[in-house]
Amino acid sequence: MRHHFPSKDTNLNTEPALLEVNNLRAGYGPIEVLKGISLEVRAGEIVTIIGANGAGKTSTLMSISGCLKATGGTVRFAGKEIQRLPAHEIVKCGICQSPEGRKIFPRLTVHENLEMGAFTRSDTAGIKHDLEKAFHLFPILKERRRQLGGTLSGGEQQMLAVARALLGRPQLLLLDEPSLGLAPLIILKIFDAIRELNKEGMSILLVEQNARLALKLAHRGYVMETGAITMHDEASRLLNDQRIRDAYLGE
């Protein structure tokens, strides 16, 4: 069932956004998936994108990170246009992604997977420090650091995917469906870690099928439908909007 929501602009902060996406278009071959996406993430925010399967949420993150090339519009990060940069250069700019489906390296150890997250860096002391921070955030990874990634449980692999992204030392962390297929207790651990990262000052753009969980965690939210933003507002207001409840929360 298709729902149309009016857009609301609640951005009262006049400071420039850390991430500014304006009229972004992208697709696969002749099929246009993103039909003029505009959104922003300010420093220190958690912003979530919610919507049904196939709405274009993952494609939005892939375009921001340079894995899906934009065919129109702009992506500005810290004041610099980045939509034409290759993905590894975008990582160097300060954007790292934990992808949908985790996509860890199953034949590498946990430690080696984490080192791959730091592939653009050469500051050995800084990498060691960030490894310890990742182990503090997810202690189970320290216990499993010599195990092959493919032998971890689904929840442990998700923790590894998030931790690997952190090894790039991002200013903006892109998280794609971190709760997908996980048990409730593991989901709470993942979301507690996201909250802790944000309290430390990290900006986060979160794509999440569990709309209720995402809106409870985020500061602001965007609703996507068939490649377009149909509504945006403070997360608390979206959570209490009856149209959102009917469409995405099953109420």
Report on the architecture of this protein.
The protein has two domains: 1-94 and 171-184 and 203-251, P-loop containing nucleotide triphosphate hydrolases (Rossmann fold); 103-169, no CATH class. It is α/β, with parallel strands linked by helices and 251 residues long. The strands form two sheets. A six-stranded mixed beta sheet has the order 6-7-8-3-9-10, with helices on both faces. The protein has a four-stranded antiparallel beta sheet with strand order 2-1-4-5, with helices on one face. The chain contains ten helices and ten strands. Residues 1-12 have low confidence and may be disordered. α3 packs parallel to α6.
Instruction: Give the neighbour order of strands across the main sheet.
Output: 6-7-8-3-9-10
| Structural class determined from secondary elements | alpha/beta
Report how far the terminal alpha carbons are from each other: 15 Å
Any idea what the radius of gyration is? 18 Å
Uncertain segments: 1-12
| Total separate domains | 2
Shape: globular
The largest sheet is:
6 strands, mixed
Number of strands: 10
Mean pLDDT: 92
State the order of secondary-structure elements, H for helix, E for strand.
Answer: EEEHEEHEHHHHEHEHEEHH
